[in-house]
Specification:
Blueprint: E1 2-7, H1 15-23, E2 27-32, H2 41-53, H3 58-74, E3 79-83, H4 90-97, E4 103-107, H5 118-121, E5 126-129, H6 132-138, E6 141-142, E7 161-168, H7 171-186, E8 191-196, H8 201-209, E9 216-221, H9 230-235, E10 237-242, H10 253-261, E11 264-267, E12 283-285, H11 295-299, H12 307-311, H13 315-323
Parallel strand pairs: 1-2, 1-3, 3-4, 4-5, 5-6, 7-8, 7-10, 8-9, 10-11, 11-12
InterPro entries: YkvP/CgeB_Glyco_trans-like (IPR055259)
Protein name: Spore protein YkvP/CgeB glycosyl transferase-like domain-containing protein
Organism: Chryseobacterium salviniae
Length: about 325
């Protein structure tokens, strides 16, 4: 069987899907368009002029061509999975459609946040979504993100911090972080928060001139931290934080990283209570003022998730379900 995954893959998660498929002896390939950039300064300058005067993004067009050229080289695929099809124009999706009899998409953003035209969605044989609201509204098939990290039990770790969080810059999240840090200071918790994004440069500059208390470590950075280094940050913390974006109700990868490492979860997502792994001893849903966060949450033992529930969120089960590799999935 030949399967191709097509995605932007900014954070570097999607290659795990291909690795899992190859472990099942499937001829799998990943077309990653994030790797397609301008070759030199001349191309960047030409693209800037094109965007300003012609309203055309040459880099986007280059990426679309890369996808179709790659498929031409790979040939016909039994199945193709497109992650978040908003990345592609309609003509490119039509061309992708020609290379398979089963075209699938997975929406890991809500349609309220990232709009995908109906004519694009109509090209797909199957639409999965991680967002509960979209599943209920549009009839998509519900599918969470997946556990990609190898399981590492709590007893093999020795965390020094209570809470760790890394996120891309988002106004809603940053405002909530301010509220949360006040509470964390009140209960004398040790934590680290890293906010990545170009919009964080003002905060980064301000941090140079303001003395930060030892137990308050908030870093605003424009430089992305290597995906491979993140598990070490996670292992050094008793709990991971997961904050939603506006109009988003699905569970981010933080939740599944926490499951893999037996970490407690602190979140503002009330809908997490609908999931079968929810346990109030492991998962705290914050109120608007974060006043329900107590130091004791970090100090009480983690309760193991039953194996049969844990398996439902593994990448092995995810790939079986998406590609119909095991009818029981």
């Amino acid at each position: 069987m030949k399967i191709c995954v097509i995605s932007f893959d900014f954070w570097g998660y999607d290659h795990y899907i291909v690795d899992a498929l190859r472990s099942k002896n499937i001829d799998a390939h990943h077309i990653k368009i994030a790797d397609v950039t301008h070759s030199n300064f001349s191309e960047r300058a030409k693209n800037a002029v094109s965007k300003i005067f012609l309203n055309k993004n040459l880099k986007t067009e280059k990426r679309q061509r890369f996808v179709t050229d790659s498929l031409h080289q790979l040939g016909y695929q039994d199945q193709i999975l497109v992650m978040n099809p908003d990345t592609f124009d309609f003509a490119t999706l039509q061309e992708i459609r020609k290379y398979t009899s089963r075209l699938i998409t997975y929406l890991y953003d809500s349609l309220d946040r990232v709009v995908v035209d109906k004519e694009k969605l109509d090209l797909f044989d199957k639409i999965f979504s991680f967002d509960i609201a979209d599943v209920e509204k549009y009839g998509f098939e519900k599918l969470t993100n997946y556990i990609y990290l190898p399981f590492c039990p709590e007893r093999k770790q020795n965390p020094e911090m209570d809470l760790f969080y890394i996120t891309s810059y988002d106004n809603k999240r940053v405002e909530f972080i301010k509220q949360l840090t006040k509470r964390l200071l009140q209960i004398q918790s040790k934590f680290q928060i890293i906010v990545i994004g170009k919009k964080g440069w003002k905060h980064q500059l301000r941090n140079v001139f303001i003395q930060i208390p030892e137990n308050l470590h908030i870093l605003f950075s424009i430089k992305k931290i290597s995906h491979k280094k993140l598990p070490e940050f996670y292992k050094n913390s008793r709990a991971l934080l997961d904050l939603t974006r506006e109009n988003q109700y699905g569970l981010s990868f933080r939740v599944f990283e926490a499951l893999a490492l037996e970490k407690k979860i602190i979140t503002d997502n009330e809908l997490i209570k609908r999931y079968d792994f929810y346990n109030p001893k492991n998962i705290l849903v914050l109120n608007e003022t974060c006043s329900n966060l107590e130091k004791s949450f970090f100090e009480t033992p983690y309760e193991k998730v039953p194996e049969e529930i844990y398996y439902r969120y593994t990448l092995e089960h995810w790939t079986d379900k998406v590609f119909g590799l095991n009818k029981k999935a």
